[in-house]
Design a protein that fits this description.
The structure is a homodimer. Chain A has helices at residues 17-29, 75-87, 98-108, 173-181, 205-219, 238-241, 245-248, 276-289, 315-325, 378-385, 399-414, 417-438, 467-479, 504-521, 524-558, and strands at 44-48, 51-54, 59-62, 198-202, 225-229, 260-263, 294-300, 329-333, 358-361, 372-376, 442-448, 451-456, 482-483, 485-487, 493-496. By secondary structure, chain A is an alpha/beta fold. The first copy, chain A, starts with 16 loop residues before the first helix and ends in a 7-residue tail after the last helix. The interface between A and B is large, with 115 and 116 residues.
Amino acid sequence: MASGKDGAAAGVSGVSSAYSTALAARRRSYGPNTSLSYEQPLMIVRGHGTYLYDDQGVQYLDCINNVSHVGHANAEVAASASAQLHTLNTNSRYLHPDLPLYTELLLSTLNSTSDKSLHSGNKGSSAGGCSDISDGCGSGGGNCSRGGYSGSNTRRSSSSSNVTFPGIQPQSQPQCQQQQQSQPPSSSPTISQPNLEVLYLVCSGSEANDLALRIIAAARPGATHIAVMGGAYHGHTSALIQVSPYKFWGQGGTGRQPHVHVVPCPDPYRGDNLDGRAAARAALAAAARAGGQLGAFLCESVLSCGGQVVLPQGYLKELYDELRSAGVLLVADEVQCGFGRCGRAFWGFQTQGVAPDIVTMGKPIGNGYPLAALATTRELAAAFSAPGMEYFNTYGGSTAAVAAGLAVLRVIQRDGLQHHAQRVGEFILSGLRRLRATYEVVGDVRGLGLFLGIEIVRDKASKRHAPATARWLKERMKARRVLLSTDGPYDNVLKIKPPLVFGIREAEMLLGQLSEVLERELTADVLHQLNQREDEVWASVYGPRYLQYRENERMLYSGLPHARL
Amino acid sequence: MASGKDGAAAGVSGVSSAYSTALAARRRSYGPNTSLSYEQPLMIVRGHGTYLYDDQGVQYLDCINNVSHVGHANAEVAASASAQLHTLNTNSRYLHPDLPLYTELLLSTLNSTSDKSLHSGNKGSSAGGCSDISDGCGSGGGNCSRGGYSGSNTRRSSSSSNVTFPGIQPQSQPQCQQQQQSQPPSSSPTISQPNLEVLYLVCSGSEANDLALRIIAAARPGATHIAVMGGAYHGHTSALIQVSPYKFWGQGGTGRQPHVHVVPCPDPYRGDNLDGRAAARAALAAAARAGGQLGAFLCESVLSCGGQVVLPQGYLKELYDELRSAGVLLVADEVQCGFGRCGRAFWGFQTQGVAPDIVTMGKPIGNGYPLAALATTRELAAAFSAPGMEYFNTYGGSTAAVAAGLAVLRVIQRDGLQHHAQRVGEFILSGLRRLRATYEVVGDVRGLGLFLGIEIVRDKASKRHAPATARWLKERMKARRVLLSTDGPYDNVLKIKPPLVFGIREAEMLLGQLSEVLERELTADVLHQLNQREDEVWASVYGPRYLQYRENERMLYSGLPHARL
């Protein structure tokens, strides 16, 4: 199997015996349903910034590892975690000064619903937001102090904390919040905005989302139904697979559970399912028809496995308003898109101007050191805690994890990575738009900051999904030492979500190579073969899945009994 | 709240402002149902070996942190993880030589059912076992090679791997296995022993046990009922709380789900529930009465939250035999007790001479670096994989986690920590037996290696649980700078499960301080007050719980409908 790397583009041939040994041992002894990327897997042994290096020293441009948020092997994060590993790495049953410091710092980034634009001239969607720790409130023209961290994250109480964090100068939250309170959102003024004042640190995004389900169950005991977005993936635990259509309607999935309702994912490219309010009403009605009541709606703020989908402006706001009126808890899954990646705001939900009841975070939070978090309101934390059951997470909030988390926030802010993501993301998007104008298979290009997608289609007229072509493009780009992945329910979206240190030079490299593949390699002959393959995979895999999603949509909106699919 | 540490014993008074600030911020902003140990929490800022140091430099003897398995801030593990963090820390979708190396090394420790005694004269329970990587097969008189790691963990195939691991010289598995095959276990020869040949790396013990549930569901689709041990805790995910009586019958628990059956935990001290075969039959019958079928039995090999209970010799073997005959999958949860802690064997299940279908591991595996694992058979991995759903775990199997895991195995073996645990554990147990002979409240002392428990009772005649006294002892020991914890369903068992570097000097310190507390501090007056407190907490908390467990036991064994408790 390990007979040779695809070395056509760069003259590499053959593999080392270490490679063959490792591949054979992995296939023999490691979970058979874990995957290795690419037809010929890469043995990656070193990383630096946004580059990866294989065992033969070949350099790859990494366009997809959003976990290595501030760069592979970032020296500052590694040094911070390492120093802590050499000093103390124990659990949160002992007090440690860095845990509450980190807790309040992280919480301070959350309590804004505004889309904090980095363009000083563009204030249209801003409401005096304080979300951008990389840019500070000052740059947006706000009147927030740039002094030391006040340590308070509550809007209502004056701070009694003297926590300071010399390395980061986030906005002074209370002042920002006062400013925001003086400018209430124009819609639904009667519904109070939840303040995210309590944090739980856990070990993985899956643990964070699973914890969200436990909090929901405690806070909404009678309302056991859950709504989720089509194509969503929220994690790998038993409970999360049940709320992840990406899994339960994906390969090997066992279908939808009766208490789970799938909101059809907006498809702005095709103009489908763009009405958030209608979606909310349909989900509420579906739960009622099934004899239940919605307790919560889980949604990634920008959809990742769903195909790098940016929700239409106002979509989530309308959906949240409608569901909140019905008492439904609103969970923003920021595991993939958070921590400044979206450019315009530190958190994806802020680009939609909404205020979730629960926010879950993961992947980029520790730059690869296992860490994740859940933020929620004091009320929900109280409901979860009231029965008296302790929540203990061995590694969650352990000292080295916190050290990594602190360093990540420090680097994002000091190096202005949110602003950088916005700038480089727009540069890439511009380039992708040029490719879209030129090539028939480039159906849609979209995204926020450095969270981008290229939807590959058979042709612009039909907009038919082209997963085989997307996969082929991914492999051809890999042969040119550029790492992309494919995703979406029909696997036809090329994902771009690199470490945030990805620069203009790297963007040019990505665009240049992609342009060359489309121009030189995707010949009429190749396309003809790919289209044959498209017919096959559509007939066998993606077509049936597509019909499943459409049938769900039809039943949900027609008010038919939402039969188990 | 942070008005002063309990400094009576050592003259420490007052707390730093950093302490007060951290405690206030933590209570304000961090999950309210997370706990801080001790009435006056400790702010621990440094660790070394089996000692912890607070922010004022006060040294504490750590008798409970089994996560820091090879010692707090172990330099070798920290350096190994740190070097990897500075080089590359990415996920398992890329091939990396250390992942399969670690995989096969870890698997090689598992495939023995024997209780590998370290006492050459005590071969009674051994069947030529090869489980003790810290001691090598040779020390037990076996004929296993002490040469380099062969890289194969399968009994059936010859190795095609050339993986070597210079730092560790585990037994050559195939030869050991041949030896074992020539000495089949005397009972149930017709039931084949599962070989644990496939590993999954995950992020936490909870993720490992939750994954076990997913594998069970895939492999036994019709058999949705699960049996667990009374008092057991298997993790914090939604699904695991349901199979953890420690939680669902503990504080804030919502009771047993109909598909979960609780095997009454053996209580050798009181002579209750010692028959494994009867327990198995009762669980099978209870599932049948509830209209279901048992798919699996989950059990810690030595019970931790259940109260440091060592199962009676032969108990698990009889239970396994009976359940295996009925097609039930057997899961050994080694999250707390594995990795040589039990002294007599590398894994707890090996001390019971059983062969699980699934083994889950966590806490000590990375010495605090978040890592956990699940090992299973090729058949079960195939059943889980067959539908085609990928299993992906972002941090599981990431390169730094593997580096930490490799270093932990290396240190355990090189420093002979399993043998050390056996030696020091026996020394402690001898000392505890002397205390038991002297003091009325020391009801039972028990354990394996450095996994020990002291059951505190009202008096030796009644054997009544004394949680208030246990808690008081814990606090008094803390005042003497010795850290213990309490556990068990009635919270009356003092736990001893220190880093394995805990030595004879530390054992003497522990025994000396405990002896002094019992002798000098537990006066008749104090005991009188404690007994009043015992009456209160028994009436309000532990008595009802005790009745719940007894009622479960009664219904299970009487063949009554196993009503939801």
